[in-house]
Amino acid sequence: IAKLGSTVVYDDYAHHPTEIKKTLKAARMWLKNKKIIAVFQPHTYSRTKKLLSKFVKSFGSADEVVIVDIYSSAREKHDPEINGKILAEEIKKTGQSACYIPGKQQLCSYLKQKNLQDSAIFTLGAGDIFLWHPEMIQCLRNKDEHTNTKTH
Q1: How far apart are CA 98 and CA 6, in angstroms?
Q2: Span 16-68, pLDDT tens digits
Q3: 58 neighbors 17 (Cβ within 8 angstroms)
Q4: Which pTM does this prediction carry?
Q5: How far is the C-alpha of 62 from the C-alpha of 88, rounded, in Å?
Q6: Is residue 59 a contact partner of residue 85, using CB atoms and an 8 Å limit?
Q7: Angle between the N-to-C axes of helices 133-151 and 104-113, in degrees from 0 to 180, rounded to the nearest 10
Q8: What are all long-range contacts of 80-89, with beta carbons under 8 Å and residues at least 24 apart?
Q9: Are 27 and 139 in contact (CB under 8 A)?
Q10: DSSP category for residue 73
Q11: Is 7:119 a contact under the CB 8 Å cutoff?
Q12: 3-state secondary structure of 67
């Protein structure tokens, strides 16, 4: 957990649609006044493909969904029929705010451009997304420092 002004950043191991749904539902109940941004790193091509329709329905409690590249397993090969962009597009078809951002650097750039006041960012997944936190937090701190120096 990291707190940067009115923005908080959490990580949860949720990588199955049911877990994601429960985590975000609890977050919505707990953080009533926060904008909830779910950043999901799908784990394995096979699981993402098999459970695609369930994943699409699992983000309903989030205000915004960001899907990053699939974290592959050593036990499977790249599957060109499924990727993070496909999942994000399917979520958007439900009317929910969703986008695809491939990796950590692009995510930092994206977050720098957003108004994150009173937001809770949840990284979700069983891959390496939890390792992205130091850089995410640093880029959010840099954004905050830049914003503060511009307004003073």
Answers
A1: 22
A2: 999 999 999 999 999 999 999 999 999 999 999 999 999 999 999 999 999 99
A3: yes
A4: 0.94
A5: 13
A6: no
A7: 30
A8: 81/49, 82/45, 82/48, 82/49, 82/52, 84/42, 86/52, 87/42, 87/48, 87/52, 87/55, 87/56
A9: no
A10: -
A11: yes
A12: strand
State the Cα angle at 92 between 90 and 95, rounded to 5°.
Answer: 125
Residue type, 100: Y
Strands in 119-124's sheet, in edge-to-edge order, are 2-4, 7-12, 119-124, 35-40, 64-67, 98-100
The amino acid that residue 140 corresponds to is: L
- pLDDT digits 0-9 by tens, 88-115: 999 999 999 999 999 999 999 999 999 9
Q: For tokens 């539902």, name the residue.
A: 25
Which residue shows structure tokens 């891959």? 127
